[in-house]
Design goal:
Blueprint: E1 11-12, E2 19-20, H1 35-39, H2 42-67, H3 74-83, H4 86-89, H5 93-114, H6 118-134, H7 137-154, H8 158-175, H9 177-188
Helix pairs in contact: 2-3, 2-5, 5-6, 5-7, 6-8, 7-8
Amino acid sequence: EYIKNLSIPTFNFYNNFGVPLLGDALTYPFSLQSITYYILPDYIAMTINRILIIFLTYFAAFKFYQLHNLSKSIPILSFITLFIPVAFWYPVHHYQMNLFFFLIIFFLIDNFFKNPNKINCLFLFLVSIFYVLSVSINLVLLALPFYLIWVILRYDYLKPKIIFLSGLFFSVLAFTFIQNYEFFSNYFNSGRI
């Protein structure tokens, strides 16, 4: 509603007793899945998002398994990957988008290291930004070690690749810091460190 009225959203009055919007993981205003809410009624936007997320996630899983030569079991593995996670049925879009982005970034990392050029680097950077903007920062941070392990297990000459990947993800987190400031502020001020 704020963005439709051409103002910057700062607070979500609909989450419990109100939450600062940029720190609210449930209502990311700059995510890919929020686009439909800007132009359609809520119930139609949610339905379209669910259908798109199912299609995109199944496609990402299908391509991921296909690229890794699991040809006989591709449709079954893709179906299991899509519907097994309990988070998929939880009615919050950023959990549902996580699996799609998680798999696509594996593909983009492989694509970049096999063919390192500016376009592949830019595409990996932009998709990583959308990942951070569209998915809970907790899930993004949980995924980072998996990407590093993926590179360690698949490639030689690790040092430059790990430095590049770490730099890329730190750049993405810096670029999206405004949206995730509340998370990092609360985390570093808590007793969990």
